[in-house]
Amino acid sequence: MLILKNICFARNGKIILDNVNLTININDYVAITGPNGSGKSTLAKIIMGLELPDSGQILFNDTDITKYSIAERSKLGIAFAFQNPVKFKGISVRDILNLSAKKTLTNENICDILATVGLCANEYSDRELNTSLSGGEMKRIEIAGIILKQNKLTIFDEPEAGIDLWSFNNLINIFNKQKEKNNTTLIITHQEKILKVVDKILLLEHGRVSYFGNKDQIIDQLIKPDCEIKGGNFYDCCR
């Protein structure tokens, strides 16, 4: 269980998160949405430890992790998938998957996990995580690593950004499989398809929780049939 109590965060005199209170249960499947600048990414970074709150408290499975480092949170089973995955010169796909699994994977293991995210092991396992890989390829490899880690809480920051339709549809299947493993999943998104498959929606507006609960009670307010979807971002044109 993840509990946030009175989380506040400001930068350069601007309030980004304003007394955010949340309780996210084990196996919750949550989409975090809201207009640009509402505090979505900041909230995710604070949960992961990429930023520390100015005030408030974060509890994860009854442990106060408010001041924990990223490494300490990772050891507890919290993972973060960046919108733009980090590239590492000199490190291969095989290396990063072995690190994620905390063991040396067989070729068959690597083939299976890469196939899950739509990549061929023969083409990718020995390639470096450098600029020769596209953003979409990097994102698939990062997700493969996250699956191997068997996390308790996984945060995805706009996972749909920069990937093709096939990859996007495959992402939905991966999210569903994560849920089957009792993995609490938080997804920052504007995508209608993702909003329709999650269990709960967290709506942030002006740094505050405007709504948090069952998706069925709010999704019709966020997605209107006569709305012109532009670039996959429904929110700004539907409000």
Describe this structure in words.
- The structure is a single chain.
- The chain has one domain (2-238): P-loop containing nucleotide triphosphate hydrolases (Rossmann fold, 3-Layer(aba) Sandwich), CATH 3.40.50.
- It has helices spanning 40-48, 70-75, 93-101, 107-116, 121-124, 135-149, 165-180, 192-197, 219-222, 235-238; strands spanning 2-11, 14-24, 29-33, 55-60, 63-64, 78-81, 88-92, 128-129, 153-157, 184-188, 200-205, 208-214.
- By secondary structure, the protein is an alpha/beta fold.
- It is built from 10 helices and 12 strands.
- The protein is globular and about 50 Å long.
CATH C-level class is: Alpha Beta
CATH evolutionary superfamily? P-loop containing nucleotide triphosphate hydrolases
Elements, N to C (H/E): EEEHEEHEEHHHEHEHEHEEHH
Low-confidence stretches: 226-239
CATH topology (fold) name: Rossmann fold
| Beta-strand residue fraction | 25-35%
Shape category:
globular
Number of strands: 12
Work out the radius of gyration: 18 Å
Bin the helical content. Answer: 25-40%
How many domains? Answer: 1
| Main sheet: strands, sense, barrel | 6 strands, mixed
Number of helices: 10
Please identify the structural class as seen in this structure. alpha/beta
Average pLDDT taken over every residue: 84
